């Protein structure tokens, strides 16, 4: 199989879906040489099958706003692959949501979920609904309408959604409440990211951010280094960014930035615990903007900018896809950043990834570094199935073990024989692929 030919075919089959094409291209660059060396995968057309979702459900979501206007949005669920377990992946509510974005996210989820070592397949969904500026009542009515249709396609053994951008504890509550009402049963394992009061897991809300930091610790360990004392850039100020920052601060790093859609905040001496608590309340409860921070704390606010030009030792992009463009990647390398661990999905453009690898930066792609979130979601399902709740300490220990295993899998498949540099992208792509591909061979042509 030849890379150019494969990509040409993929582009023909997914016209205009540029994020999906970007995600597949990054994976195919590593997988095609591997598949060519392992003809059983080539003969069974595993990559061609893996790049075509099992099914996609698209539906209308009608709801009424506070001024009694009827509003119409588009809802989606991309059920990508249930080869090694039920479909599993988050829901995104954002005005930018379209099929290309959800297909890229669902595709990445195949490899990520396989890397966790847990029995979970891959899916992703959401809607082009913008929760910004909406009242709680409007968000509730939207979630209820969305779930009325989605409920026909999900279930604890079928497809288990969770949160993502724009879908946090509030939205999961409304979605679960509607599912429970429609189905007339308390099926806690149908959604993850639930509040602890009704079947959520300790550490789930922290898991993606903490996991990205645990992954960075593993990378540093191979160089006999630690997190303590490192200057870190974190982007985003949502779920993933908040808990990446929290863990970094707890481990003695200096987190000098956070960002949101309005710009980024720079705190030269490092964000304090008090300031982080304030930011969590600002984003999670007041639903405000980081631009308000200079009124309260001694910090700089850079309107409309991203943080990648600040000197640092490590960077944790935790906002959204393609937030690190080639120019940003050049700035990071120039400013002697030695490690990048992605909390977000596909935050770096493919040219930026190439640059990081050429510069021998320790670079962990999202599908490996942010897998802690879905891993703890799978453990939330385990707790729901057994009607047990584990302690914070137990779950945190599982998270650390899982991140270590993912790291080791990346080293197994990504270590370059000549110089020992670990290509974590290749390691994650091949490491995630093998288990799914072997299961597909077992199933025959389905
Ligand atoms: P949230 O909605 O909680 O936070 C997203 C943050 O990123 C917000 O601060 C938001 O700004 C900012 N942001 C979003 N879009 C843009 C944009 N276009 N430009 C600038 N800033 C932006 O989402 P999460 O923290 O859950 O998700 C963040 C990333 O992590 C996503 O890529 C997601 O797919 C990925 N991820 C999330 C997991 C999870 O468990 N939640 C699991 C694995 C990956 P503002 O505050 O202004 O809205």
Can you describe this structure?
Among the domains are: 136 residues, 3-Layer(aba) Sandwich (Rossmann fold), CATH 3.40.50; 165 residues, NAD(P)-binding Rossmann-like Domain (Rossmann fold). Strand 3, helix 5 and strand 4 form a beta-alpha-beta unit. The radius of gyration is 21 Å and the shape is globular. By secondary structure, the protein is α/β, with parallel strands linked by helices. The longest helix has 23 residues. The strands form two sheets. A seven-stranded mixed β-sheet has the order 9-8-7-6-10-11-12, with helices on both faces. The mean pLDDT is 97. Helix content is 47%, strand content 15%. It contains 16 helices and twelve strands. It binds NADPH dihydro-nicotinamide-adenine-dinucleotide phosphate (NDP). NADPH dihydro-nicotinamide-adenine-dinucleotide phosphate binds next to helix 9.
Features:
Rossmann fold, five-stranded mixed sheet, 446 residues, alpha/beta, binds NADPH dihydro-nicotinamide-adenine-dinucleotide phosphate
């Amino acid at each position: 199989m030849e890379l150019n030919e494969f990509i040409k075919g993929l582009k023909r089959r997914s016209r205009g879906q540029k994020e999906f094409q970007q995600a597949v291209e990054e994976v195919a660059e590593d997988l095609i040489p591997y598949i060519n060396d392992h003809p059983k995968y080539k003969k069974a057309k595993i990559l061609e099958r893996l790049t075509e979702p099992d099914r996609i459900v698209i539906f209308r979501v009608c709801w009424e706003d506070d001024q009694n206007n009827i509003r119409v949005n588009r809802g989606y669920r991309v059920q990508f692959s249930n080869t090694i377990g039920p479909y599993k992946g988050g829901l995104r509510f954002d005005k930018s949501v379209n099929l290309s974005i959800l297909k890229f996210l669902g595709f990445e989820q195949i490899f990520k979920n396989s890397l966790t070592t847990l029995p979970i397949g891959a899916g992703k969904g959401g809607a082009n609904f913008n929760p910004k500026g909406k009242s709680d009542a409007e968000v509730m009515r939207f979630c209820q309408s969305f779930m009325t249709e989605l409920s026909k396609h999900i279930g604890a053994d079928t497809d288990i959604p969770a949160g993502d951008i724009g879908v946090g504890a509030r939205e999961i509550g409304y979605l679960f409440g509607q599912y429970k009402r429609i189905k007339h049963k308390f099926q806690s394992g149908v959604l993850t990211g639930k509040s602890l009061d009704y079947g959520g897991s300790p550490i789930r809300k922290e898991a993606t951010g903490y996991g990205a930091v645990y992954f960075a610790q593993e990378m540093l360990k191979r160089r006999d280094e630690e997190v303590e004392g490192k200057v870190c850039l974190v982007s985003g100020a949502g779920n993933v960014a908040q808990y990446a920052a929290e863990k970094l601060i707890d481990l003695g790093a200096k987190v000098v930035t956070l960002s949101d859609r309005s710009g980024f905040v720079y705190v030269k001496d490092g964000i304090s615990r008090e300031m982080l608590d304030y930011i969590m309340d600002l984003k999670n409860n007041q639903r405000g903007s980081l631009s308000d921070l200079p009124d309260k704390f001694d910090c700089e606010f850079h309107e409309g900018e991203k943080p990648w030009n600040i000197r640092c030792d490590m960077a944790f992009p935790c906002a959204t896809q393609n937030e690190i463009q080639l120019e940003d990647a050049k700035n990071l390398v120039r400013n002697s950043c030695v490690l990048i661990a992605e909390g977000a999905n596909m935050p770096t453009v493919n040219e930026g990834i190439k640059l990081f690898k050429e510069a021998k930066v320790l670079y962990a792609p999202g599908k490996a570094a942010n897998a802690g979130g879905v891993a703890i979601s799978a453990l939330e399902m385990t707790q729901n199935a057994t009607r047990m709740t584990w302690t914070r300490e137990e779950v945190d220990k599982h998270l650390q073990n899982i991140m270590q295993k993912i790291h080791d899998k990346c080293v197994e498949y990504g270590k370059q024989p000549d110089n020992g540099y670990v290509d974590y992208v290749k390691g994650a792509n091949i490491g995630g692929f093998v288990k799914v591909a072997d299961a597909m061979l077992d199933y025959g042509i389905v």
